[in-house]
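Worked example 3. Consider a protein that binds N-hydroxy-L-asparagine.
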Amino acid sequence: MITTLKYYYRLLPVILITACNTTQTSEKGQKAGEVKEETKEAVKPIVISTWNHGLPANEEAWKILSKGGKALDAVEQGVRTAEADPANHTVGIGGFPDREGNVTLDACIMDYQSNCGSVAFLQNIKHPISVARKVMEKTPHVMLTGEGALQFAIQQGFKEENLLTPESKKAYEEWLQQSDYTPVVNIENHDTISMLAIDQEGNISGACTTSGAAWKMYGRVGDSPIIGAGLFLDNEVGGAAATGLGEAIIRTAGSAMVVELMRQGKSPVQACKEVVERIREKHKNHKDMEYLQVGFIAINKQGEYGGYSLRSGFNYAVCDSKKGNRLEDAGFKLSAEN
Ligand code: SD4
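Given these inputs, the predicted complex is written out as structure tokens:
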């Protein structure tokens, strides 16, 4: 289904025209191991987000950034587009359920002052990112989970609704016939939306939201709501966010590591590449290696950006005032077939 969605976006040339004109310029022709280091002229404001669903999400974020709004508002509103889309089976409503048929959502958000909020294993609320923001702003905590997160969301005025759409239910019933949990690289269970933005003030914020790995165990939480794994930023340095097999990203504190490498002087692409290589090295004899995919996006304080993944097929959307809104293919280490 997600393959279909990606294909759909690829076929649509320029329908998403706003102030940040969307162009369909996925940059092709990279070879495994190659790093595109055409760094990326620094422009601010800027927003970058994972996968094809990043295009409409960037459009929404850009409406805020281009008017001088805050990066925090931009990333929240941006990723809400993916959460609200029932055709998106990896985020929000319509997300594929766990192996017991429950849609459980993970999300986190972080601002330029290192405030952060997160929800994990949240059910029946369409916009976990906005609940995460409320956790950040209204509680003394960073993270709420499961029933507690749901209760808090209801107290905050969020509406409970069934997130299992007929389409996702059908996919789940089909999956039940084999009940095989083998994640497929780049397909349907690896499409979290992570977004990083710098506003006109030069402040960075980030957001990450997902329904997690399809057909996961009940109660499983991935990297996406974990500050330091699925998302991390330091306003003096830059930000990073992840997509892919959450277990591998948690094991290596992925996004925090990317930011630390940028602090040491690496470019966003080089930092993402180094962490991907570390993850590969750590997993070379691991059972997860067979289907392991991880990808990172990163942005530094100057507004330079980049992405890198273990296997081919990962792309991200970037929007700025110079080049508009476009998709770019990330550099990668291995081809998706390896
Ligand atoms: C997870 N990292 O729950 C998420 C899934 C994902 O792109 O990234 N999909 O493991």
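Take a moment to read the result before moving on. Residues 268-282 form the longest helix (15 residues). The two ends are 23 Å apart (CA to CA).
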